[in-house]
Amino acid sequence: MIYSLPNLLTISRIFSIPLIVALFWFKGDAARWAMLAIFVLAGITDYFDGMLARSMGQISNFGRFLDPVADKLLVSALLIMLVWSDDISGLVILPALVILCREILVSGLREFLASIKVGVPVSNLAKWKTAVQMVALGFLILGKTGPDFWRPEITITAIGETLLWIAALLTIITGYDYLRAGLKYMAEDNDAPDD
């Protein structure tokens, strides 16, 4: 089941990360467009891996574990590299930081809840958050490479930054929802050892 088509699509998303990161060291528009193409393909695999797993009856524990990990690795690597390359700078680092912190919080919460055999379903708002976040990252990858719009203040970068702020707001809301759902289990005394 590890080598099922849905899982291979998820694994390909993880393998896309070093390619995208490596392209940050190349200057010029071609590198940015290549980065965007790989990122879009990775996003497409995110849609199809789950859909195929359900339609083919190949939902596995490995896939359930790996899919959110692949998403978090891709988003985290991109945010770090966009800050490193100065494509995200100034106050826009704040929504990037909020998104990174939420990813760590939710990962830790999911690990804790899994240890006590409690699942946390992904909400529709969390799916919207992911969609807005991915579109924002696509715009930020292109940055100054993208086409000009009808007004000089409306740039690809400005659109990406605005969407990143919206994604950060949705991140706070969904992160709180996950935390609230898990707090009742955290408040219970448990004799399980911690790390």
Any key phrases for this structure?
195 residues, globular, Four Helix Bundle (Hemerythrin (Met), subunit A)
Unreliable runs? none
| The top level CATH class name | Mainly Alpha
List SSEs in N-to-C order: HHHHHH
Number of domains: 1
The largest pleated sheet is described as:
none
Structural class: mainly alpha
Q: Whole-Å distance between the termini?
A: 30 Å
CATH architecture identity: Up-down Bundle
Helix content estimate? over 70%
The CATH homologous superfamily is called CDP-alcohol phosphotransferase transmembrane (TM) domain
Shape: globular
The total of beta strands comes to 0
Mean pLDDT: 84
Strand-residue proportion: under 5%
Specify Rg, calculated over alpha carbons. Answer: 18 Å
Total helical elements: 6
What is CATH's topology name?
Four Helix Bundle (Hemerythrin (Met), subunit A)
Please characterize this protein's 3D structure.
The chain has 195 residues and is mostly helical. The chain has a single domain, classed as CDP-alcohol phosphotransferase transmembrane (TM) domain (Four Helix Bundle (Hemerythrin (Met), subunit A)). Helices cover 73% and strands 0% of the residues. Helix 1 runs antiparallel to helix 2 and helix 1 packs parallel to helix 3. The model has no long low-confidence stretch (mean pLDDT 84).
